[in-house]
Amino acid sequence: MSRRRQLLRYLASRLLLAPVMLWLIATLVFLLLRLAPGDPIDALLGMRAPEAARAALRQQLGLDQPLLVQYGKFLLDLVHGDLGASLTNQTPVAEVIGQSLPASLELGVCALLIAAVLGLAVGFSGIARPEGKVDLAGRLYGIGTYALPPFWAAMVVQLVFAVWLGWLPVGGRFPASLVAPTVTGFYLLDSLRAWNWEQFNGTVRHLVLPAATLGLLLSGIFANALRLNLRRALRSDYVEAARSRGLGETRVVLHHALPNALLPVLTITGITVASLIGGALLIEVTYSWPGIAFRLQEAIGQRDYPLVQGIVVVVAGLVVLVGVAVDLLVALLDPRISF
Amino acid sequence: MTLSLPGALLRWRPTDLSGRMARWGLVIVLVYALLAVATPLLIHTGLLPDPNAGLDSPIYAAPSLGRWCGTDRLGRDVCVRTLAGSGVALQVVLLALITALLIGVPLGMLSGYLGGWLDRILVLLMDTLYTLPVLLLSVVLAFLLGRGLPNAAAALCVVYIPQYFRVVRNQTAQVKAELYVEAARSLGAGPLWILRRYLLRNVITSVPVLLTLNAADAVLVLGGLGFLGLGLPEAIPEWGADLQQALTAVPTGIWWTALYPGLAMFVLVLGLSFLGEGMEAWVSGSDGGRGS
Known about the structure:
The complex is a heterodimer.
Chain A: H1 3-35, H2 40-45, H3 51-61, H4 67-79, H5 93-125, H6 133-147, H7 150-164, H8 187-193, H9 197-234, H10 237-244, H11 249-286, H12 292-301, H13 305-333
Helix pairs in contact in A: 1-4, 1-13, 5-9, 5-11, 5-13, 6-9, 7-9, 7-11, 8-9, 9-11, 10-11, 11-12, 11-13, 12-13
Chain B: H1 17-45, H2 78-114, H3 116-131, H4 134-145, H5 149-176, H6 179-186, H7 191-227, H8 239-247, H9 256-284
Helix pairs in contact in B: 1-2, 1-9, 2-3, 2-5, 2-7, 2-9, 3-5, 4-5, 5-7, 7-8, 7-9, 8-9
């Protein structure tokens, strides 16, 4: 079979698997929320609520229907993009998610950029002398950033830069004294497009600490990945061949080893997105950043079942899609992969 | 590994970073285990105050000679609560991981050995669970199960089952295809005998490494749950929950309630990671890092 056809087949199988995984996740979340011990009605109204109120709420949530009917309705609604309505204020869940997702994406993308630049620099720095002090420090950096509890790191950063030095605001996304930009929900883009310096400055000042904290925490993954792959590449035959042709070490590293070491790092980026979400959940809560994870925390506190269900399904779906996208990108970029 | 050599601590040998890490990791974990055992005893005998008692103490008292780490917003001693947290964390994490091991390993063996449609369904299910962000999954589970020590352990345990399942399932499938296993089977060896004879050794070398690294991860996830107001009941002193309470005081510059529980958590995770990475390099016979 030609490579082209192999590639197409791989792409097709990967793309077909994604909906199956999404369906599995949706089913899992549905079953967990229905079959878990404890009645959601009890949790919402308390044990001693009058029977009439309980029955009304049960009917409103559709919990009086048979499980299979509930499941069918849930899947049908999901396919149509309907995630139900929040219990606390009757807003459609999809609308709540749509409002808070840009904040999370803005923070996530900035953090990922910081993590990539910082991590790749640390990972690359040890290459001149493997097992040298810089290389060992790089390895310890990887473990150290992993071991930092995200919320604690965030609190320490807040204490130092916001409370003691007073350089930046403690939390939130935008200064309360200004009117927030409104078009896409991405404040950085919106304020740039409106050419509003005050808005842009306010956005950046609020974004710096959360993005830097999350970026620092994730940079260890990049540093470790690049360090390991670069070292593997430098031990390979083609590097040996390049050296024996008399190429300088700089050229060998930059033109032969580095491109081959960077490709697996792209795969790591896909995996990082999953940890990014775990970290972002805690970072958003610590910095009161009004993103999707912050809403999830609120929804959990209010025992808002539809909202929890909707957010988890959407976030898990995003993770699966990013995973597929990265796999496809690697397959397209790497001529060596056989399927 | 030079664990047994007392002089090894003094020798700086850059090529043996893994050995040094394993040694320091072991020391840290042992200290925490000791604290976990000693703290309840000291509290019981009255040498340390009760971690929940604090109504007669000043609130948010700064660290002083009498109270080394100060008091929190209810006047409870931060030092004692931080010390007591180590026992709680180790207990929950150990319970969660042993449960995950007891479910994941047999399931992986079964799936890898039997193959067929059961294997495919289990692999798809486990891969799906594995794709989900760890914290998200345990947050949902902890939300559903409510607060409690076994509940928190259960919420953590589900996250780690797929990891043991994957490792054991792949090794079983691999071993099953070997020629000597085929030979043993044709000589009349049963599946149980084959699994025990040929597989257990592989599993025994790879599982402890995974267990240690997962313990590091689980401490962080448990703290995350506590920080989000999930997990353990409020009466149990736990680092994550204490940090959540400390968060409200951060803008006023009160640092001691935030510093100590987080530092305790950081060092324990660091110790477990060191131990796990050192063991990993030792098992694989080379000086590597955490793989991709």
